[in-house]
Amino acid sequence: MSESDNPAAALRAAVRERRMPGHRTRRALLESGDPALARQAGRILKDLAVDGERPREVDVAVLATCTVGPFEPLLRAQLVGAGLLPVLRSADYGTFGMSLASGSFTRDGDPALVAVLLDAGYFLPGDFGAAEPDVLAKHVDVRLEELRGLLAGALKHTAATVVVHTVPLPAQVRNGIISVRARAQVARSWYRLNAGLLALAEEHDQVVAVDLVGELAEAPVQACDVRLHRYGDLPYGDDALLLLARLVRRVAQARAGLSRKVLALDLDNTLWGGVLGEAGPQGVQVGGLYPGNCYTELQRTVAWLREQGVVLVLASKNDRDQVEKVLTEHPDVLLRPEAFSVRMVDWSAKAGNLRRAAEALSLSTESFVFMDDSDFERAQVGDELPEVAVVSAAGDPAHLVDSLLRHGWFDVMTLTDTDRKRPELYRNRALRGDFSSGFDSSEDFLRALDLKVEVTSATEYTIGRIAQLAARTNQFNLTGIRYDEAATRRMSEDAGHLVLSVSVADRFGDEGIVGALWVERTPDVWRVLNLVLSCRVLSRGVERAAVGRLAELAALAGARSVEGHYRPSDRNGVAADFWTGAGFTPAASPQETETQVFTLDAATAKEIAPEWIALNERNGSPHE
After folding, report:
1. CA-to-CA distance for 527 and 525, rounded, in angstroms?
2. Handedness of CA 240, 117, 173, 141 (dihedral sign)
3. Strand ranges across the sheet with 84-90
4. Total Cβ atoms within 10 A of residue 174
5. Strand duo 84-90 + 113-117: pairing
6. How many CA atoms lie within 13 A of 609 on its CB side?
7. Cα 367 from chain centroid?
8. Is 121 exposed, middle or buried (0-12, 13-18, 19+ CB in 10 A)?
9. Is the pLDDT of residue 624 over 50?
10. 162 phi/psi in degrees, rounded to 5
């Protein structure tokens, strides 16, 4: 029996052996819609501890206006399913307002994430007349303003990301008003409440709003268990709480930089109906009536994902010429050949093709989602590459879009310009690979690339991308400190700190922002608190050019030296020798940490940057 067939046994084994559950077990946790299984899993995982290589940890506080019920184990199961190691703590019942007023969500320090569980009772008056909808609407507006004020005050005392959600209007209120006009008026006030809750995310960078009401409208579940509500002030049923746990998990997953970058797609009975080898280019089903319109909607959705930065890979067992003909000539096909950064169309095993696609893109297969209708192909990829998220395209094609999107594999906290350009960037990467084969040495290749690097201060438009790099970058992440968007913004506005973005362009195009530095500035010493660089530009000397520019800026400001830090992790060994390779000298390191310290005379800046890189300047550079 596989671990996905008996996840409870697999979870107990993982807890007993002090390790994270395997990929298949975690995937089963995410894909299951059974709240009883999720509750059981969450209880088993309460004692999970991990030895050896540790996954990303997340400290979550649960703050509720009601009884939390099984929300904590449901959320724990979802977070572990996403590959996170959670520490969950729930505030005491009845302390919602006090916790917000004080900005203190737990007794044990500031959490990374606060999941707020709201119920309708918090916003409704204790007693109101059904014939007076104006009174109800006014009370709801007042309570929203009170929540807005409490939250604004709390955010001054915490760096946590706070997740709020929309709230369903109880059927008792909706159906208890017999006037059709008054019922519509109350519904309108409730929609205004939910619009206000969603707007909290626009008012505060630390707030994320999720739409539980929208999820409940699409899911065949009952939002409320009336008996439990009356008995224990638990306004939501287990199914609704599982939906909310999924939404919070998607935020935590995106915040931790665990979103997937690549969507690998089959063709036959996935992107179009029918088998190309049997039906021929004119016989595949796409467009028109059912089922062709289902494949059109999937292609439209995939194109939409690509516009937002998801890299597309074609993984099909087919004749290459026939596939090219359909993608190029079929009038109803929306995804033309140029939409795919890599096309693996042959008769080889798909797991091997996904590996080769990952190599061509210089990405890990952990960043892949694979969608296929064949049970065999999905099983083969799942067995050989369990880290790949596998999505079924089998069954009724009407469900294709939902199957692809429901788990939020591609969610990011903020969509940046670099995200939007990513598909083209990775197509260019494949071209660079072909280009590099014609040179005798790597330095000749790098000179021919015509590399240009720009190092400049963070702006309102680049802070989101910089924070995204901090969350996602593991290999060239010198200290492992993951400054989120709020912390990065505060540092960028503080005279004692500096946040720099690193952009790269070459003969094949603009790579966008690929790196960042967080720097503490004193009159004598500039300390690099962290430096991250995307793996797609490693081995080009970009990191040395960035530090060279920083040292130059420090010297111009009158600083005597630049100090670099390195804290080893399970995944950043590639950066272990960076500081010494850039000319820095080891210095005394703090005894209480594993952080290593290196120093450099700021006056030697010009000796750091490789000669094949041109450093660009523009208005708004840090020294101006």
Report:
1. 6
2. negative
3. 84-90, 56-64, 113-117, 161-165, 207-210
4. 13
5. unpaired
6. 21
7. 11
8. middle
9. no
10. -105, 125
E strands in 14-120: 56-64, 84-90, 113-117
For the chain, what is the mean pLDDT?
A: 89
Q: How confident is the model at residue 447 (pLDDT cuts 50, 70, 90)?
A: confident
Residue type, 393: A
What is the C-alpha to C-alpha distance for residues 137 and 43, in angstroms, rounded to an integer?
A: 40
What digits encode the pLDDT tens for the residues 125-135?
877 766 678 88
**AA letter at 57:** E
Q: How far apart are the first and last CA of the chain?
A: 65
pLDDT at 537 (0 to 100): 83
Kind plus residue range of the DSSP H or E element containing 504: strand 497-506
Taking the C-alpha atoms of residue 223 and residue 235, their distance in angstroms, rounded to an integer, is 8
pLDDT digits (tens, 9 = 90+) for 47-91: 999 997 778 899 999 999 999 999 999 999 999 999 999 999 998
Q: Which residue has the tokens 């760096």?
A: 159
Strands (E) in 417-482, as ranges, are 451-457
Report CA dihedral (195, 196, 199, 200) to the nearest 10 degrees.
Answer: -140
Check whether 352 has a pLDDT greater than 50.
yes
The distance from CA 584 to its chain's CA centroid, rounded to whole angstroms, is 34
Distance from C-alpha of 19 to C-alpha of 10, rounded to nearest angstrom: 11
Nearest to 138 by CA among 178, 81, 66, 193: 193
Write the DSSP symbol of residue 78: H
Beta carbons of 283 and 274 less than 8 angstroms apart: yes
Nearest to 100 by CA among 78, 117, 76: 117
Instruction: Give the helix/strand (H/E) hosting 361.
Output: helix 350-361
Q: How many Cβ atoms are within 10 Å of 483's Cβ, its own excluded?
A: 22
Low-confidence winner among 215-219, 296-300, 509-513, 517-521 (lowest mean pLDDT)? 509-513
CA distance 386 to 325: 33
- Backbone φ and ψ for 215, nearest 5 degrees, come out as -65, -45
Q: How many angstroms separate the CA atoms of 454 and 63, rounded?
A: 43
Give the C-alpha separation, 34 to 26, whole Å: 14
Convert 22-48 into a string of H (helix), E (strand) and C (coil): CHHHHHHHHHCCCHHHHHHHHHHHHHC
By the 8 A CB rule, do 50 and 32 touch? no
- Looking at residue 623, its pLDDT comes to 38
Find the angle CA(302)-CA(304)-CA(307) to the nearest 5 degrees: 115
Q: Parallel, antiparallel, or unpaired: how do β-strands 561-566 and 342-346 relate? A: unpaired
Cis peptide before 220 (omega within 30 of 0): no
